[in-house]
Design a protein that fits this description.
Layout lengths: L1 H25 L2 E12 L3 E9 L9 H14 L4 H4 E8 L1 H7 L5 E9 L2 H13 L4 E8 L3 H24 L6 E14 L3 E2 L2 E2 L1 E3 L2 H6 L5 E3 L2 E13 L1
Antiparallel strand pairs: 1-11, 2-4, 2-5, 3-4, 6-11, 7-8, 9-10
Length: 232
């Protein structure tokens, strides 16, 4: 008796599931996919700055190099309290005990700037101050979330326009959306010559010209939607 009841329960679930699927598939619908994208210039540029006594073979202390760095950045109008963060402090203390060599200290910082021109000036200024280990850490766009929402809206309107264009010759019209699937992403510039998406002239060229030739590639943002529209 228990087996019979269980069998009827499974059968009832199966019939209900099939009925729901059939109701969805049987109604006339139009499925479209649309993708839109946008290129934007990054407005949050993060530079990794390493201050190390090894660059001067221990002749200049990290404290002096650090003071030079602060003077350079403040001279460029950068708010170091807000934009400069200490990442790490280290030394070759273990090597000192093992090899009886001089202890050389280092400090690493992360600096945020808002444009490529400022980034270029920072690189040149720090080079002149004896700090040459500066690398691009990452690129960001501050209004990323707002941009992706805008692209998703454009994508779904494009999907509806495609659907209307397809069914209009058939004398039909697009009704309400019965299923929506969306995805969004962004694509950072590719790494070139060990740096992520930026081109910069040599230091000699920097010293010879007032305009700093540095350019960051744009970030590509994309939004895709797949929509099923009921047909009237």
């Amino acid at each position: 008796m228990k087996t019979l009841i269980l069998l009827w329960a499974v059968l009832a679930v199966s019939i209900t599931t099939q009925a729901q699927t059939k109701n969805f598939i049987d109604q006339p619908y139009m499925e479209t996919t649309a993708t839109v994208d946008s290129l934007v210039v990054p407005d949050k540029i993060f530079l990794a700055i390493l201050i190390t006594e090894a660059d001067t073979k221990g002749k200049v202390s990290t404290e002096v190099l650090e003071r030079r760095m602060y003077n350079t950045l403040t001279g460029l109008g950068i708010d170091t309290k807000e934009k400069l963060k200490l990442s790490d402090v280290g030394s070759n203390f273990k090597k000192y005990f093992l090899k009886n060599k001089q202890v050389l200290k280092d400090k690493s910082y992360t600096l945020e700037v808002g444009d490529a021109v400022t980034a270029g000036k920072v690189i040149v200024g720090l080079e002149e101050a004896g700090i040459s280990d500066v690398e691009l850490r990452k690129l960001e766009f501050s209004n990323q979330d707002k941009l992706l929402r805008l692209l998703e809206r454009k994508a779904i309107l494009e999907a509806k326009d495609i659907a209307n264009n397809m069914v209009e010759p058939l004398g039909q019209s697009v009704g309400k959306a019965i299923h929506i699937q969306n995805s969004s992403s962004f694509q950072l510039p590719r790494r070139e010559s060990g740096a992520m998406g930026y081109k910069v002239t040599t230091m000699d060229s920097f010293m010879e010209q007032e305009a700093i030739d540095i350019e960051f590639e744009e970030i590509r943002y994309m939004a895709s939607v797949q929509v099923k529209f009921a047909l009237d």
